[in-house]
Design goal:
The protein is mainly alpha-helical. Helix content is 95%, strand content 0%. The longest helix has 41 residues.
Length: 43
Amino acid sequence: MEFNHDEKEDYSFWTKYKHFAKNELLLYIIMIVGILLGIIIFS
């Protein structure tokens, strides 16, 4: 019973995380582009 309960918690966590991950991925892409532009400008 406990294992099934934990599994349900993990499932809800992953669905929330996947929904959040789209925004997180966009933030990382923006950061990487910004860093690359910074390197190009300063080099």
